[in-house]
């Protein structure tokens, strides 16, 4: 999808050190690219902080949720997304998987001297479009410019604020024997899309990133199943790492059925060529939830009606032992232990 860029009077073609020096050039950059691009009432005030009425927040929940993340993906643009979409999606999803309703984001940008203004404007427009899709506002931020060679084009830091209702209690240590493990679709798409975008291996694949906000899907899930025991988004480290975190924190075992884990053939092919395991590939639009077995069927049916959950399915179950272990039943009938990722399969993935 092509995102239209807002009209701007900004005349520069590339970022210079003066754009980070605090003077007129920096003010022009902030006004014409960031304030105009993000178009939020709080940002237009140009205060050093965003301010909110607590009574409005407490109408939606009695607890605040706060998260922060930094994005250094290479390349900045990839099939189905870019660093801006990734930054908004990642922060929104980190709030949402805890049961929070995401509301506000900050945006801090570290920009390398010489970075193209057109690319910066594309990224800002992508962030705005993704924030609108997720129903959140970018309300404050910061800009730093570093000399050429001191950073790799552009790094983004975002923080997110949301609210959680009193009845919601999603934690990594609540998995119980007898529960089931649910995922909302194919794994490994983001990792495969980044490999393709880097163009180092001349692979011909058509996989796009799965980068998408999950907060609307999750709020629908909570309406049908208020007592979701555990939930996280499977980003760096992939599905395997998330499940190991659940198993370790809850002192249980997770038994996975390899034949039920959805993996696209293109992703499976990339993994075979490169010697990777799709269980460890990064995702940017996949949630892993653990719920009571009796809640699984109605929850899956509801998830499959949402665009972000149409391929949702049960992929495993929780058992009492061996504690802290994730066991995969392979398609050949054998079992193997799935450990947490050691090292990094693909650097600069998000």
Describe the structure.
With 350 residues, the protein is α+β, with helices and mostly antiparallel strands. The protein folds into two domains: 17-164, 2-Layer Sandwich (60s Ribosomal Protein L30, Chain: A); 180-337, PurM-like C-terminal domain (Phosphoribosyl-aminoimidazole Synthetase, Chain A, domain 2). The chain has ten helices and 13 strands. It has helices spanning 24-38, 41-44, 54-58, 83-96, 117-134, 189-198, 215-224, 238-250, 265-274, 293-304; strands spanning 63-71, 77-78, 81-82, 101-112, 137-146, 154-164, 180-183, 230-233, 253-257, 287-291, 313-319, 326-329, 335-337. The strands form three sheets. Strands 8-10-7-11-9-12-13 form a seven-stranded mixed β-sheet. A four-stranded mixed β-sheet has the order 1-6-4-5. A hairpin with a 2-residue loop joins strand 2 and strand 3. Helix 4 runs parallel beside helix 5.
